[in-house]
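G.,

No rush on this.
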Amino acid sequence: AIQGWGYYFAEFFNDTATVSNKAKSGMTANQYYNLPDYFPNFKKNINEGDYVFISFGTNDEKRSHYNKSDSYKYIDENGNEVEEQIGLPVEKYGEYLQKYVNDIKAKGAVCVFVTVPTQADNVDKCAAYNEKMRAIASDNNVLCIDLNLIQTEYIDYVKKLSKNPADQSAA
């Protein structure tokens, strides 16, 4: 089975750290936050001093590609059934990122954002979502690992080397 990047985190730690990957492929920020089997269940086990890595945006950006009738339902904290569209416009995406920050910090844990990497063609289809994530991180003193920038710079570097192999000796 193909795993997300979080699956491999444990390989970078010794046995004094426990890595628990609770990511679910295909989820949007609002779905993962609201559906009871995901963040509502997961946050019960967040402890003071834990690090929680959050990376959304790819599926949220795709919202314009979904049929308008594509939605999901959940029961909110007041017991009401709520229906929301799959995927989010950027501003609503930011509201959900803020909810994650608030909930994680309330548990005494450390929230870490990870931006969405570019696609294989090095086109940042999630640029607005990455910018929103960076802004929310900045506003809340949250560490943001800019995977998007790291990957973009690496791909640009490799492209440069492939165009001018003489530059490889300087690498």
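When you get to it, here's the other one too:
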Amino acid sequence: AAVQGKTTGAIQQFDEIKLKDSSKRLPVVLYLHEFSFAHGYAAGYSFQGGNGNKLLFEQFLSQGIAVLAFEQIGFGGRIEEVSAFYKRFPNWSILGNMVADTKSWIPCLENLPWIDSNKIWLVGNSLGGTVSLLTGMFEPKVAGVLCINGYSSWKKEPQASPWLTGLTVHM
């Protein structure tokens, strides 16, 4: 089963592929995509001509692992949500919003009768790796995290672009 969606605080799109064995409760991977302004999670990393995510998802599905992927704020269909983000939320960060969005999917997954709520895993690539690590730290219902090439610097760098500054952890 594969679930895809994007969120702005509620599920806007939710497509389900029929299960072969409806009695089996599946583990699920919540996939968090890399920097991909135009495509969000759709195109994925540049393996096999940009079909990397599709191939990755197919591998999970072939092993009986459901996949949920959504576009993080500032990417794909949600690219415009960051345009006035700091005017609306001066004391928050884009990264904090990404973590909150990711956490909001956990109850949705728990309520699906074909998902094993004790086996919700986060898998993130690049920026998604950072979001998966942080979400895993703050969400006890996450069974585990796989961080692939996560963002390397969590401190503010004076020369960093304003977009990247919003992705730093404020401690």
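The mean pLDDT is 75. DSSP finds five helices and six strands in the chain.

Enjoy the weekend,
O.
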